[in-house]
Every structure is written in structure tokens, then in C-alpha cells.
Amino acid sequence: MTTDSGAAAAAGGLRRPVFWLSVVVLVAVDLISKAWVWSNVQGEVFLAGRWLSLRKVYNPGGVFGLFQDFTLPLTLIRIVAVVAIVGLVARQPRRNRLGVATLALLLAGALGNLYDNLGRWTGWVAVEDERFLGSVRDFVKVDLGFWPLDPWPVFNFADACISVGFVLLVLGLARIQLKAARPEPC
């Protein structure tokens, strides 16, 4: 086996067009949905009774609104997460499809929210009030009327991607290989 084929096997996950297509599509859905809601929704719009609605919320913190006003540290953490996830994808053997799909969900979610964070410095995201520059735009509200869903914290598509990826990891359905993949036979 040549060195080139060994390098190709080691970068297995990164050479998967389906992985990159998945990330691009998921990030696009997140950004398009945010742009649409911010352009078209005023107040709260109920989609299914009172239990599912759209409501614009700026979140300067992290998941579930934790760590409010820590936008800069959270932005740096998201940048590190993006680099770490890409590194993990490169380590996945070709047969680890669910692991790579899970990492695609996590990467897309991190990139979608990072886009909003970077709006503070890039001007990518227009906000009504400069206090919200760099905040993540959340808009899906679920309220089933009982704890803990009364209401669930408002979220966005990127958050949903991260949540699904996290659940797959926690339940052990997706196994992520932390060591570099061994070169696979040609």
C-alpha cells in the first residue's frame, strides 16, 4: 500500500461527498429558516394550536439560554468545536456511516449557530437592536402544557441538529472513533 492510499484512508470521513452535502444542506436549512422567520414573522404565530409556534428570540447565551452574555467565550468554544468535529470526521473509518452522519449533524448545528455569533464582527446578521449582535436567532417554540415542556426553550434548526446528534451519541447508537482510522485494504 502506498502512502497516498494510507492518507486517503486516514481522511476517510472528509472524503465523503455525502457528508459535505449533508452539512451544506443542513446549514442552508438553518440559515434560510432563520432569514425567513426574521423577514416574515411578527409577534407569535401559532402553527398547531398553542403547542407549536414561531416566535423570534435572540439568545446571547448557550443551549437552553444558559450562560447569557457570554457570547464571545461561546463563539470561541463553537470555533473549537467545529475544528474538533472536522478532526473527528477525518478519523472515522469508511464503515462508520452513522458516526459520520452524527458528526455531520453536530457540525451543521455548530456552524449554523456560529454564523449568528460571527454576525457581531462580520455584519452577516442584521438585528433590530445592536445589543443582540452576535446572539443566536431562535424561533421554534414548543409548549405541550406540562413540565418540562411548558414551554420548552425556544430553539432553531441548528439546535435541533445538535440535539439529535447528542442523543445519538448518548444512547450509543452512533459510535465515534477517537483514534485515527487504520488504512483500509484497497
Task: Give a short summary of the structure.
The chain is mainly alpha-helical and 186 residues long. It has helices at 3-10, 17-40, 71-91, 97-122, 157-170; strands at residues 44-48, 52-59, 136-142. Strands 1-2-3 form a 3-stranded antiparallel β-sheet.
Description of the structure:
About 30% of the residues are buried. The protein has a three-stranded antiparallel beta sheet. It has one domain. Helix content is about 50%, strand content about 10%. It starts with a helix and ends in a 16-residue tail after the last helix. The protein is built from five helices and three strands; from the N terminus they run ααββααβα. With about 190 residues, the protein is mostly helical. The longest helix has 26 residues.
List strands and helices in order, with pairings.
Layout: H1 3-10, H2 17-40, E1 44-48, E2 52-59, H3 71-91, H4 97-122, E3 136-142, H5 157-170
Antiparallel strand pairs: 1-2, 2-3
Helix pairs in contact: 2-4, 3-4, 4-5
Ends distance: 8 Å
Q: What's the shape? A: globular
Q: Which class of secondary structure composition applies to the elements?
A: mainly alpha
Give the % helix: 40-55%
As a whole number of angstroms, the C-alpha radius of gyration is 19 Å
